[in-house]
Every structure is written in C-alpha cells, then in structure tokens.
Amino acid sequence: MIALTLMNVWIAFLSAQLPIARDTITVIENNVVLKMPWANGLNFANVSALDVNLDGLNDLVIYDKSNQYATGRFRCFVNTGGSGSLQYRALPDASYFFPNVKSWAVFYDYNGDGKADLFCSTDLGIKVFKNTSSSAGLNFTLSKALLYSNYNPGGQAMYLNLYASNVAVPGISDIDNDGDLDILSFAPQGIFVEYHKNLSRELYGHSDSLVFERSSNCWGNVSESNCGVDFGLCTGSKPLAFTTSTLVGDHQVQSKPYHAGSCLTCFDNDGDGDKDLLMGDISCNLIQFVKNNGTATNASFNDTTKLYPNFPNKNSTQLIRMNNYPCSYFVDADKDNKSDLFVSPNASNSENYRSLWLYKNIGTASQVNFQFVKNNFLQDEMIDVGQNSYPVLFDYNADGKKDLLIGTYGYYNNNTLNARLTLYENVGTASVPKYQLLSRDYANLSAQSLNNVMPCVGDVDGDGDTDILIGTSSGQIHWLKNTAGPNNVCNFSVFLNNPFSFTTASGAASPQLFDLDGDGLLDLMIGTMSGKIAFYKNTGTATNPAFTNITNGIGNVDVTTEPLLQGFSFASPFFYKENGNTFLLVGSISGQIFHYSVPANINNAFTLISNSVNHLLEGPNSTICYEDVNGDNKRDLFIGGASGGLSFFSSASPYVGLLEQSSSDLSNQVELFPNPFQSRVTISFMNAQANAGQFTVENMVGEVVMQGQIYQNNQELDLSNLTTGMFIFKLNLSGDFQAKPIIKKIIKSM
C-alpha cells in the first residue's frame, strides 16, 4: 500500500509538469557557432575552482550575483581541454546541487580533503558548507551556520560573529602559512582590515576546524577609504562600536555598523612568502594592489598602486578598470598549475555582458605575471544581452520561421546602461531552427533612452502585421508600430511614447498581448514589481485599441516567495491556450516559475498547479516564452533571467517523459526489484545470455549520480547513497546485446 501510494504521488507529480526537457539550438554570432549558447549569461561573478564533474580535476564554478537584490545562481563550467587549455562547456544542471545562498559565495578547501568547501554570506557574517561530494554526485552539508571569532585574545574570551559585509567578499587564505585557512575582513567601523587567525593547527594539529581569533584589528597597518589606501593610521585598538546585542545559539552577538563593502584577494605576488593584497571597493572603478613588505606572520604594507597588473613592469595590455566595484579572484583557469587572475564587478550599474575579465599568468606559480586575455571570458560563447533578458518569438521577415527577439534592462557600455532589443534571425528551417545574430539594437530602440525594455508582440491595430509593445521600469507601455503590412519584413520606424496614457500601479511593466476574455480583442496582461498581474481589457476595437484597467491583481496571482521581497517580486506572465483551456506561466524575482489554470470565469481565482514548474530554477528574474519553435505542434520553453542569457527546454528533447526504452525486447526481460526501494535493489535477467553489463543512475536533471558493473544475474545493488526520489537506471548489456541502453525508472522511498 505504501509503495502504491508513493507511485500515485509520482504520477501526479509528473502530470503537473510541462512535457519539456533541457535541449539546445545552434546559435551563430559574427559567423562563429557559439559553444554553449543557452548557458544563461553572466553579470557579477564570484569565481572559484571546484571539481564539478567529479573527475578529480578542478573546473570553474561561478556564483553570479545577477541582480540588485543580491539573489543569484551558481554557474558551472567544465574544462574540456588539457594543460594550458581555456576550453570550457557549461554544465547547467550541476547548479541544482548547490545550496541556496545570497550576496556572495566562494570555494576553498578548509579541511585538507582535496575538495573545495563553500564559504558564503549570511545575515550576520559568514556561513560554511562542507563539500561532502562522492561518486553519488555533488553534495554540500552545512558545517557552520555562522563563523565566530574571539575578539579579545589574551584576555577573557569574547566570541562574536566574524563580521563580513554582505556586499563584500572577505579574503580567505592561509595568511601565516601554517596549513589552515585564515580570514581577512574589513572591520565593521569601516576602513581597517581585521585579521582572524585560524587556530585549528595550533589547537588540534590539523586544518579541519574553523576556530578563529582576531589577531589584528589593523592588519599590516593598512586602511582604505574613498577609493584610496593609507598607511600608518593604526594608533592602538580601534573601538568595536557595538550598539546592541542578540543571542544567537549559545553566543551573545553584538550588532555593528556596516562597512559599505570591499573585496579582498590574498596571494603571494612575488614569491617572498607573505601575502600581498588586491582591494576592490564599492563605488570605485579601480583595483588597488598593496604590497606586503613584512612577513607571513607580521604583515607590513607601505606600497600601493592602482596600475595593477601593469606594475611593476608587467606587460598586460589592459588596466583593471570597471565602472563600479571590480573584485578579483586568484584561480587556475587553464590547468597549468599556475593561478590566473579573474576580475568581475560585485554590484549592479557596472559592466555586464563584458564583465568577466581574464588575465593569464605567464609567469610562474610563485612569481606571477598577468597577461590580459579577454573581457568577456565564457560570455563570448553564450547568448548574453547584458542585465535581464525577456525572450519573445515572432516572424520578423515573414519567411514562416520564428525568430528570437530579446529585450534587456541594458547593455553596459561606455559608462551607460542602455536598454535595447536584440534580434536573432532563424536561418534554419521550421522544424530545425538555427539562430543567427542580426542586431543588438533592433529597431534602433536605444535612441529612445528607455529603462528596462520588456517586449511583447501582436497585431495591435488589426492591420495584418505584427507590432511590438514595450514595457519599462516606469510602468508605462510604448508602441513600436509596424508599418510594413501583411507578409512583409517588419518596419518599426514609428515609435509611440505611452500611447495608451497609463502607468501601472507597481512599476516594471512586463506585458503580454492575449485575448483573456475571449471577445476576439487582444487584452494587455502586465506583470509588475508587486508580484501580481494587472489586467487591462481592450475596450476599443480590433483596429483602434483602448486598454482599461480592470484589476491590478487578476486571479489572486502572487509570486512573492519571501517576505523581504514583498513589493519587489516582479511577475512576468505568459498566458497560453492548450486543448481549449487557458493556462498561465509566471516568472518571478526568485527564479521560480509558477503555473496556473485559468477558469472560464476570469473574475474567479486562478488555480495554482505548481509554484515550481519542473523544479526549474535557472536564476532570478525568470521570464517566460512557451511556444512551439520546431514545428511539432508541441510547445518549447525559453527562460530568460537577470544574468542576461537564456535557457532552452524543448518538447523534442530525448529526456522528455523519461520513457523506458530499449533496442530490443530485452526491456521486458530485465527486472529491478523492489521498486520503490529503500536501500538495495536486485537486478534480474530472464534471458540467460544477458547477465552482465554497465549501469548508470541519473537524477531528474540528467546528472549521473552513480555508476557500476553488473557481473551476474540476480546481483544486488547498494543504492543507499541516493536521496529520496525518482531516478533513471540505464543498463548497457555486454555481449550480443550491446546497443541502446535499457532504461528503467526507479524510486527510492523514505
């Protein structure tokens, strides 16, 4: 009965999901085929080394703090080349194995097991997840919900939260070269660097502990303020400036004034055994290099420059200069055992589609020499339209194929965030689309100086051609009027500024043209920052539209997921009809995608089908386009987001439905039991010739979480390391039966 109930739950789960799975479409830019076009884009990157695919070699993992609300997403890239190679491929499904974090996240191996652990921001400082990955897959287990430090070493112990601003990135490194990780962070009062020494080696003889004391409240005698560095301002102990106290766990934690934010990168620039410093600060456009002329245990700074890495006598051709808050990361990018330098902004209103700068170390591991490589590393291999992306399909040239139009909050260029429309022409066929970049400023929309361009398409004036309506952050709707006429290449030479003379009650208008009430006229459905959807009924005619506000919250739809985001939830709607019924998909600032059934009486509440469609979470500010792009009469899904890129999921993907399949009748002659199971299953062959092979177990996002050999009939397999849920068991038989794998669904119960 328990097994039957669980199976019914999974059947209900699958029926509530969209029949799509991750897929790809060829994309060409400047006559070059992009290697990972649907990798979601990048904005503001914290860069780390991590073995993502568990092959024993480090790859790149990037935490992209992709919007101004500090929500972000991990992006994983696997190095596919050998030593010296900068060839990477995206592994987007790996992002689903990381904890949900905010503000900043970096990886360092604190316990010496060869696996990088996760250090990330929390409300009161720093949280740590231990890397517990195994052959079963990536996994991170909370180790410390909050790091503490003794702020009064040598006296009565005073353990307080080890402060790190949520808009900064602390320096995490073995400062004193004793084998454990120490932490540098700006003092709460603002300008002095605190050195929190890890006592794991001293107390326990190993590095597998996170026990800190504040060894210095003005490390190296260096201070920072107003985008400058000063020396010699440390004149004794600085006040802690505590104002209130709160009990957190067993510790009384003091509240402190916040430091606005700085990024600290510790590394030995010149091989002299002590740690030098790179400092990036909010509201500043340069990184400062500060040279340590002391020792590993007694830092002393008295030399600084803003010319790094062109100092001293380096040959880089590109000075680090970004409009706002550049931060640096010391990571080996090309498997040559020499750490390279990455630079990316740590705040919005800065570089976005050219925001990951790579400097290759052409020196040695101990004496670095950074040579500029490019300012759009990885980004040049993917669709990236800057900050935010709003995908729409329409046939711009009347050739019967759907082209891809993308709106954006803006490309950051020449110190300006400029909202535009980007158009990719479908140069493939109706059944096999292929996109080629046609324009990054389609219809010359940049000339209108709009803020946050959110497009939708439809024949607004009934003249037989497709118009474009543009929503903006102001809450207004503008009209790009197509004057080409039916069956002609679109001509959007006429721009009408707010022609319908309204402003939504909650800004950031994300519009869709859709006949909601079935009267034959296109209505305006507008998602807003409130997390709700406004309904503007077309009270005009097919040729002379007029939109009247009926409600600012139709169907009781609300995609607010966190109380702190109340009023900043950003609903992005996509209504569609399926088998005569109306449905709604809604993106949100959290990245979750909501699915609703719309009743015949649209004045009633909509029915929530799922608040996490297909468990997709591609990144914050999710936006939706759910249309058939490959001509099979089944809808495909494009997801945009804050990072400026896109994800693509198709009805034609081989993973859709996860149906059991086989190249022969052997699928009916192989059994796995019990199923559902708790820890072990037995594989039984009814055909005596088929008694050996290789198997893999994949999770619901297609990642291999276990693999092994089948040696004999009725072999018992230990699958206890799998988490509760559904998995795909793939078996490749040896001998005469090696062809397409036999695929079985298996379910692990609690």
Q: What does the model show?
A:
The protein is mostly beta strands and 750 residues long. The longest helix is centred in the N-terminal third of the chain and has 14 residues. The N terminus is likely disordered. The protein has two helices and 57 strands. 3% of the residues lie in helices and 38% in strands. The protein is globular and about 80 Å long. The chain has a six-stranded mixed beta sheet with strand order 3-2-35-34-31-30, with no helix packed on it.
* Biggest sheet record: 6 strands, mixed
Number of alpha- plus pi-helical segments: 2
- Class based on secondary structure composition and strand pairing: mainly beta
**Using DSSP, what is the number of strands?**
57
What assembly state would you assign to the polypeptide chains in this entry?
single chain
Radius of gyration from the alpha-carbon trace, in angstroms:
28 Å
Q: Helical amount among residues, as a percent range?
A: under 10%
The gross shape turns out to be globular
Side by side, the strands of the main sheet go 3-2-35-34-31-30
Give the termini separation: 14 Å
Averaging pLDDT over every residue, what do you get?
Answer: 87
List segments where confidence is low: pLDDT < 50 over at least 5 consecutive residues. 1-15, 236-259, 658-666, 735-739
Beta content comes to: 35-45%
Spell out the key features of this protein:
6-stranded mixed β-sheet, 750 residues, globular
